[in-house]
Amino acid sequence: MTNQPNAEVDQFIREAARWREEIVQLRRLALDCGLEEHLKWGLPCYTYAGNNVAIIQPFKPHCALMFFKGVLLEDLEGLLTSPGKNSRTARRIEFTNPAQIAAVEGSLRRFIDEAIKVEKDGRKVPATRESQSIPGELNAMFQEVSGLKQAFEGLTPGRRRAYILHFTGAKQSATRRSRIDKCIDRILEGKGLHD
Q: Smaller CB count within 10 Å for the chain: N or C?
């Protein structure tokens, strides 16, 4: 069952400076497999029953198809990679030319079908037991800023994790404090680091 293309994605493709042919190929695959197409975060995003399944990511060195719950997909060929050292759930496959996409089209269709099944089955990525410690500077700010601790604890686990990684990525206490100061309003508004 092929779904209809989205007009905003049509415009995105027309304006793409790089990777146009690769984007068109990946789009066709996603739509052919029955995913719905949207433009989210400024990129072609594909959903099933309202849940994000995959997104096309054109970068300078390559174009990628990223699966939001890629860690749950069976990847016997070892095609999927983590997008970064802090990514627990997402996995992607990168391309530098259309022939690479054509060569793994069967695997891509299988990944998409499996990702749809993950959503149909309501599967979730298990929460990790790793505890992320709150940096001392943030604990101090909880005491100084009314409502900050409650607002932080009210964020989704992913948003809390992103903030902690951002804050603890700084080596010096003064830098951690500065990063926290810049994020206080966002936290109090219930927004994530990248919202």
A: N
Domain of residue 93, residue span: 7-120
Q: How many CA atoms lie within 13 A of 94 on its CB side?
A: 8
- Do residues 104 and 162 both lie within one domain? no
Q: Residues 89, 9, 191, 48: what is their CA dihedral angle, to the nearest 10 degrees? A: -50
Structure-token match 């984007």, residue found:
23
Q: State residue 29 phi and psi, 5-degree precision.
A: -60, -45
pTM above 0.90, yes or no: no
CB burial of residue 26 (10 Å; 0-12, 13-18, 19+): buried
Residue 44 to residue 27: CA distance in whole angstroms: 8
Mean of all residue pLDDT scores within the chain: 91
Claim to verify: residue 94 and residue 147 sit in the same structural domain = no
Contact (CB, 8 A) for 45 and 51:
no
Q: Is the pLDDT assigned to residue 31 strictly greater than 90?
A: yes
